[in-house]
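Slide 14.
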Amino acid sequence: MTVFEKIYEVVCNIPKGKVATYGQVALLAGNPRWARVVGYALHVNPAFGVIPCHRVVNREGKTAESFAFGGSDIQRQMLENEGIVFEEDGHIDLKKYQWKP
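Slide 15: predicted structure.
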């Protein structure tokens, strides 16, 4: 299994209404130093709509500045559609919404 395949496998396990951080996905995929690699893998997601890359946020609970699949607000809209509520400053409360496998 390639590194990207390991990352996609982890991301596919994030349940609807939850998020994971890039670092968390990296750790679960096998190497805590792969956080940037997670970003690269999600940017070239070969199965948008199947691999829920919109459920991955940064360590501050913020969405990607330029979400690869339609602009910056698309990721937020997709998460809100799953029931995630954003704080006034635009971040997600990770204590409430972070996936704990």
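Speaker note: The first strand starts at residue 20 and ends at 21.
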